[in-house]
Automatic annotation (TrEMBL):
InterPro entries: Cyt_c-like_dom (IPR009056), Cyt_c-like_dom_sf (IPR036909), Cyt_C_IC (IPR008168), Cytochrome_c_Oxidase_Subunit (IPR050597). Residues 32-137, 145-251 form the Cytochrome c domain. The keyword Signal applies. Residues 262-284 have a biased composition (Pro residues). Coiled coil: none annotated. PANTHER family: CBB3-TYPE CYTOCHROME C OXIDASE SUBUNIT FIXP (PTHR33751:SF1). It comes from Eiseniibacteriota bacterium. Keywords: Electron transport, Heme, Iron, Metal-binding, Signal, Transport. This is C-type cytochrome. Residues 1-23 form the signal peptide. Residues 256-284 are annotated as: Disordered. One of its GO terms (molecular function) is heme binding. The keyword Lipoprotein does not apply.
Length: 284
């Protein structure tokens, strides 16, 4: 029996790898609005002045404030509503600031000035950028005390380091099955967490029993750069209840200021309002 030439085997291997890559790509749902906005902001050069993910504004000589505002702590000094954020991005200024001679003089003294992106982005892209900026600023925030406590605990436990502001981003995770850390309001979240019991397992043990028992799932979990920690010994009484309340709230609420974006469906077993207990730190 003749052996296939090495060149034929190489081509076949490349073809199989391509098909596999396309299959995985097809399994990736569109990211949530805030993540789409983050990726777009990076492509548009926003982080050159506002810093990595808008967290550290560059120095701006000539201005009284001395630096470009960041999205985390400075936003509400410049924007009091989602429409204000939209105006800053679209027009480079809000109508109120544009009408102020004092503000115009201050702007003209600065070395760096906010550009107007209205002619460079679509309305849908503008919605995504607004969703990202607001998410970075912690908006919208849950009014329910239990959900709000869940967000605070998620931040204290370090969950938002990988899952992004409010658990709304999909940061890269090389080696994982889909290549990113899943956001808590993402369309594929329900594939990873089937109800409250699995929620608890992921947070407490770092993996659900279902995934731990699946050889293929274990393979991708073990080769991922970022791996879900086991928080069992670090949880405080009531943490699971609060964390789940926040995730349930997040999955029931549309992104603020993004009218073109529909809210993600609630997690399986979740009520439309914050209630059941469970964790936000979902699998990688």
């Amino acid at each position: 029996m003749r052996r296939a030439p090495a060149a034929v085997l190489a081509v076949a291997a490349v073809a199989l790898a391509t098909v596999a890559a396309l299959a995985v790509s097809a399994l990736r749902p569109p990211p949530p609005a805030a993540e789409r906005g983050r990726r777009l902001a990076e492509r548009l050069g926003c982080f050159a002045c506002h810093g990595p993910e808008g967290t550290r504004g560059a120095a701006n000589p000539g201005r009284t404030d001395g630096s470009v505002p960041n999205f985390e702590g400075d936003l509400m000094m410049y924007a009091s509503s989602p429409e204000d954020v939209r105006a800053w991005i679209r027009d480079g200024v809000t109508p109120k600031r544009a009408a102020s001679a004092t503000w115009r003089s201050e702007r003209d003294r600065g070395a760096l000035r906010m550009p107007a992106f209205g002619g460079r982005v679509s309305d849908a892209e503008l919605d995504d950028l607004v969703a990202f900026v607001l998410a970075s600023a912690g908006e919208p925030a849950p009014a329910d005390p239990l959900a709000a406590h869940g967000l605070a605990r998620a931040e204290a436990l370090g969950c938002t380091g990988c899952h992004g502001a409010g658990g709304r981003l999909a940061r890269p995770n090389p080696g994982s099955f889909k290549g990113y850390v899943p956001p808590w309001d993402g369309a594929d979240f329900a594939e990873l967490v089937r109800g409250r019991a699995e929620f608890d397992e992921w947070v407490r043990d770092g993996v659900s029993r279902r995934f731990a028992a699946h050889p293929a799932a274990r393979f991708f979990l073990e080769r991922a750069v970022l791996r879900m920690p086991a928080y069992g010994e670090r949880l405080q009484p009531g943490d699971l209840d609060a964390l789940w309340a926040y995730v349930a709230w997040l999955r029931s609420a549309p992104p603020a200021g993004a009218p073109g974006v529909s809210p993600a469906p609630p997690a399986p077993g979740a009520r439309a309002t914050p209630a059941p207990p469970a964790p936000p730190a979902s699998p990688r």
